[in-house]
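Case study.
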Amino acid sequence: MQAVVDFILELDRLKQVTRKIRVRGTERYENPAEHSWQIAMLALSLAPCAAEPVDADRVVRMLLVHDVGEIDAGDAFFFAEGDAQARTAAERAAAARIFGLLPAPQAASLLALWDEFETGASAEARFAHAADRAMPVLLNLANAGQSWRDNGVSHAQVVGRLAGPIRAGCPALWDYLEGRLDEARRNGWFGA
Amino acid sequence: MQAVVDFILELDRLKQVTRKIRVRGTERYENPAEHSWQIAMLALSLAPCAAEPVDADRVVRMLLVHDVGEIDAGDAFFFAEGDAQARTAAERAAAARIFGLLPAPQAASLLALWDEFETGASAEARFAHAADRAMPVLLNLANAGQSWRDNGVSHAQVVGRLAGPIRAGCPALWDYLEGRLDEARRNGWFGA
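After joint prediction, the assembly is written out as follows.
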């Protein structure tokens, strides 16, 4: 029992990591803990539109654990330059350390889920990616492009980096976003 | 697709509701969105110790949606006096309104999960209750009893209100907490 308690208290630290998006209607930057909850809800709601049939519960589990590595490694802005491979290695080491607080079989199963998400090696992982990538877009579309403007992100960057993964996981979602992103460009909601 | 987007943006408001417990090591009060994420992780970790065999994925779904009614109704402190029945009715009306943003079959399925949690009518719901009730205790035990001291909550109140539901869902968890709560009393971490 003490192992589970140590694990769950360590997870509390994810509430202190800050992302680049503000909670709607506030000045506070959201954290990966509440973000993970929201994308789990997005995935449950969108599951009927997944590109391939998916086990929605596996998707939810994956989304709940996918940001745990940020407890040690912090949040990296999706459009930031940087050594993506070193970044992934740091997050994986963190995830392994934190899941390792649990008994070995549970630790191994959570790390396997984390790896599955990271490598995008299943229909569930691809759909999970689509939810994870789409959520900040939906918030920016509701927030006059706040994180795009704050961080100098262009329409071309958003489309270039997101069309592939979102379409691969949930084509109907990308069809929807494409029109909304055009509209956002006309509104001047991009930063570059 | 617009229905799902409206729903997920409405859910964003849960990040603005405040609970009585501070995020460890900060002055910020946690919100029910990040709390829902954390108890979903607690339930996944504790599932092998559930009182009865449970479908952990159903438990997770239940925990992800159980606080959605607080978007309209706000958070009620567990130990507060008040009309519990009116409170539940307000939260259920809110949940029905918010889930109702989704297409009818999805709305009905989320509301059924919400009701199942609320009535404690299944092994999954009872285990979910144990996780939900235990999390603030674990945080208070790690936080020198912050929300107990701030709100004048006694050791007898905690034991009286929590022993039943936690033991019913996860006996090993209550066995663990009982000793820790005695220790907290000796430390003077209660408010009354």
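Observations recorded in class. Chain B has one domain: 2-186. The two ends of chain B are 51 Å apart (CA to CA). We will return to this complex in the next lecture.
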